[in-house]
Each structure stands twice: as C-alpha cells, then as structure tokens.
Amino acid sequence: MDENSIGTIVVDCAVKLHKSLGPGLLENVYEAVLAKQLQQAGLRVQRQRPIPIRFDGLTFDEGFRADLVVNGLVILELKSIEKVHPVHKKQLLTYLKLMDLKLGYLLNVGDELMKNGITRVINGQL
To answer: With b meaning 16 or more CB within 10 Å and e meaning fewer, what string describes 88-116?
Structure first.
C-alpha cells in the first residue's frame, strides 16, 4: 500500500472519529481511538514512535516523538488546538525529513469541522 492509499484511509477515519467524538477532548484520547480505527482498517500503527536525530556521526533518540506512524510510511501529528500555526506544519516537515519519509498529516481535532483541520504535508515529491 502506498502513501496516498494510506492517506485516504487516514482522512476517512479522522473524519469519522471527529464526527463521533467532536472537538474538545485531549489529544491523547483522539490518538488512542484513531490508532485503533486504523488498525481495524488493516494498517500497522506505531504510537509515540521516537524520531532519532543524527548529527556529526552521532545518533540521539531523545527529543522528538511522532504521534502515529502508519505502515512505516506516513506520519500523523495530532493537535487539539483552536488554530494551527505555521510552526506546527514545520514541526511535521522536520519529522518527515528526520525519518526520511514523504507524507504526513497534521490533524487538528480541535477544529469545529475535521475537514478544516486536515493539513497534508509533503517532504520532497510524492
């Protein structure tokens, strides 16, 4: 399954989740439920996956964690905030670069409508 196919399932599950639970819950609640939904859809999901930093020949495991990594190909970064800011997109792009992945989704479950809270972030060309 490629990144775009995974993305279609992610968006469908995120919209369904948001319609059921609505905005306003803690981010970790949405993370747990979305992870289970994606697994039930047949995808492999890792929660809170460490993102190593390589610098000057050294590797550091401290610091960053991806909320969800789906099939080892797509990063999902969840936010439960009133408004997404450019720094949130930059954060996801940095995660994609550090993990050498191409596609990520910033999912703001705090938005009134989930379709307005979905941002697709691409690292390079997809």
So the answer is: beebbbebbebbebbbbbbbbbbbeebee
Q: List all residues 6 or more positions away from 113 whose beta carbon is below 8 Å from its beta carbon.
A: 18
Helix (H, G, I), strand (E, B) or coil at 93: helix
What is the token pair recorded at 93? 């792009």
3-state secondary structure (DSSP) of residue 42: coil
Residue 6 carries which side chain, given as an amino acid letter? I
**Number of separate domains in the chain:** 1
**What predicted TM-score, i.e. pTM, was given to this entire model?**
0.93
β-sheet bridge partners, residue 118 = 107
pLDDT in tens, 65-117: 999 999 999 999 999 999 999 999 999 999 999 999 999 999 999 999 999 99
CA–CA separation, 100 vs 52, rounded Å?
Answer: 11
Q: Which domain holds residue 29?
A: 3-122
Neighbours of 51 (CB within 10 A): 19
Tell me which residue has tokens 């720094």.
87
